[in-house]
Amino acid sequence: xxxxxxxxxxxxxxxxxxxxxxxxxxxxxxxxxxxxxxxxxxxxxxxxxxxxxxxxxxxxxxxxxxxxxxxxxxxxxxxxxxxxxxxxxxxxxxxxxxxxxxxxxxxxxxxxxxxxxxxxxxxxxxxxxxxxxxxxxxxxxxxxxxxxxxxxxxxxxxxxxxxxxxxxxxxxxxxxxxxxxxxxxxxxxxxxxxxxxxxxxxxxxxxxxxxxxxxxxxxxxxxxxxxxxxxxxxxxxxxxxxxxxxxxxxxxxxxxxxxxxxxxxxxxxxxxxxxxxxxxxxxxxxxxxxxxxxxxxxxx
Length: 300
Known about the structure:
mainly beta; Immunoglobulin-like; 2 domains; 7-stranded antiparallel sheet; disordered C terminus
């Protein structure tokens, strides 16, 4: 009897020591996500084991896994896509944080609630994180536009703007799908204020342009490729109905609008909306106002 108690105490002491050697925690970044949006999870590993720990797609001495359940006891199977694509080394006495995306590695494509439990396997030891929860939601569609893809005959992209409440504010997302339903990206375009209806437009280069209001007297224009890459992002302020360029971030110079392109964009808006964005004059610069009238019709 005493031997059994001693053995049990020794085992509990060993487990406590093992847990003290490695601290493992996970936090889901967004508890509410749009369908097909990335599902980032922040991982924290504090290593006091006396040796380095490595994680990578090819193996390593530590493995990061997740148990994803769509309902109690119903597991979502992994797709085979590695969670960790680059080698991560956690040296002794170091505290490392990194983020992984669950969407490519698990088939979380259907709407509904999910529970997620993280596991870190280190040899014959398993460290289990606290259970996390995420709701995958369809969002509210407020605009939609379909168009072709330059260089791909017969290929179509469907661009939809959807809103979702997150962190006590309403945010707008651009979702890009092809005619087969495959998703090519979900982009969080930021906060939205729905006084002016957002506008979708496909330019002569095949990129989609999105203009939406993100605050009182504040607007944002994004230019995005059919493959979900942001070409440029520009902020505007409003003064008595006139929009003026406030700040721009254009990794690709093709995101800038020429005066002719501005006039074509204005005609496009005029033909697809009811009183929204009626006049655009001058060049695309800080001195070039964009004249708007409020309205409720959806963008074309």
